[in-house]
C-alpha cells in the first residue's frame, strides 16, 4: 500500500507501472519481506528518475505500508521515504500504535492538518480512526493549504487478503480512488464512507450507521454539521 505527496505527477506514473509489473510477474513480490519489497520499490523509482529531464522536479515523499503474515500472526510496517531529484534522501520507519492514531502526515498541508487533528483529538471522539479521517476531511474543506484539495482517498490494509480501496461520499458525490463514480456504477460490494466516517449505502440518501459529531466539538471550529447526505 502506498501514498505519496509533493511532486505527485512523477510518482503517480512510476508507481502505477511498478505495481502493474509486479502483478504481471516481471517485478518480484516479496510477500514475507517488507524490507526487500521497499528496497525493490526505491530502486525502481531511482532508475525511472534517471530517464526524466533534469528540469523536472522530482522531490516527493512516499508512504509505504505492508502486512507480513496473515490473521492474528500478522504484523504491519510503515515507512516514509523522501526523494530529492529522484534520489532517496531520507527514510523513516514508523512504529505502529496499538490503538487508532495518526502514524504519519507528509506534504505541504501536514502542519495545518495536525492543527485540525489536535481539535478532534481533544474531544470525545479522540483516539479513533474516525477522528483522524474527519480531521483530514475538515482540513480539506477549510482550504488552509493551496496545494491540498480534491476528494480524500481511503484504503484499508487488513489482516487477510490484499489492501482494499474504500469508496468516499464527498460533497454529495461518490468517489473511488479519487475518481467520481456515476450512480449506475455503485452496485459493487464496496464500502462507502462520508466525511464523518459514517458507513454509507450508495443506493440510499444518507449514512447507514450514524456517527454524531462529538458533543464538545465547538461550532466556531467545526465546519461539519449533523445532516443527511443526499446522493445524486
Features of this protein?
single chain, 232 residues, alpha+beta, seven-stranded mixed beta sheet, four-stranded antiparallel beta sheet, 11 strands
What does this molecule look like?
Helix 3 (110-121) packs across helix 4. Strands 5, 6, 7, 8, 9, 10 and 11 form a seven-stranded mixed sheet that branches. A four-stranded antiparallel sheet has the order 1-2-3-4. With 232 residues, the chain is α+β, with helices and mostly antiparallel strands. It is built from four helices and eleven strands, in the order E-H-H-E-E-E-H-H-E-E-E-E-E-E-E. The chain is globular. It has helices spanning 9-23, 34-50, 110-121, 129-142; strands spanning 2-6, 60-68, 75-84, 87-94, 154-156, 164-170, 173-176, 179-180, 192-193, 199-200, 207-209.
Q: What is the total domain count?
A: 2
Which of globular, elongated, flat, extended, rod-shaped describes the shape? globular
- Most strands sheet: 7 strands, mixed
- β-strand percent reads 15-25%
Our measurement of the CA-to-CA distance between the termini, rounded to an integer number of angstroms, reads 31 Å
**What is the number of strand segments?**
11
Whole-angstrom Rg: 19 Å
Order of helices and strands: EHHEEEHHEEEEEEE
Note the total helix count: 4
Amino acid at each position: 500500500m502506498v501514498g505519496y505527496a509533493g511532486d505527485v505527477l512523477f510518482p503517480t506514473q512510476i508507481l502505477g507501472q511498478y505495481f502493474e509489473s509486479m502483478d504481471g510477474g516481471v517485478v518480484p513480490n516479496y510477500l514475507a519481506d517488507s524490507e526487500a519489497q521497499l528496497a525493490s520499490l526505491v530502486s525502481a523509482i531511482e532508475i525511472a528518475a534517471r530517464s526524466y529531464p533534469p528540469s523536472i522536479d522530482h522531490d516527493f515523499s512516499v508512504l509505504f505500508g505492508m502486512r507480513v503474515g496473515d490473521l492474528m500472526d500478522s504484523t504491519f510496517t510503515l515507512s516514509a521515504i523522501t526523494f530529492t531529484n529522484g534520489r532517496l534522501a531520507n527514510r523513516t520507519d514508523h512504529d505502529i500504535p496499538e490503538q487508532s492514531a495518526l502514524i504519519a502526515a507528509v506534504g505541504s498541508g501536514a502542519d495545518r492538518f495536525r492543527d485540525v487533528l489536535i481539535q478532534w483529538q481533544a474531544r470525545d471522539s479522540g483516539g479513533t480512526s474516525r477522528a483522524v479521517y474527519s480531521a483530514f476531511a475538515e482540513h480539506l474543506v477549510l482550504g488552509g493549504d493551496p496545494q491540498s484539495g480534491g476528494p480524500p482517498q481511503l484504503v484499508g490494509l487488513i489482516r487477510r487478503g490484499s489492501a482494499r480501496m474504500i469508496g468516499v461520499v464527498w460533497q454529495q458525490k461518490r468517489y473511488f480512488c479519487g475518481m467520481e463514480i456515476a450512480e449506475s456504477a455503485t452496485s459493487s460490494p464496496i464500502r462507502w464512507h462520508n466525511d464523518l466516517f459514517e458507513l454509507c449505502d450508495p443506493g440510499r440518501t444518507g449514512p447507514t450507521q450514524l456517527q454524531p459529531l462529538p458533543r464538545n466539538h465547538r461550532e466556531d471550529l467545526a465546519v461539519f454539521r449533523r445532516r443527511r447526505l443526499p446522493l445524486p
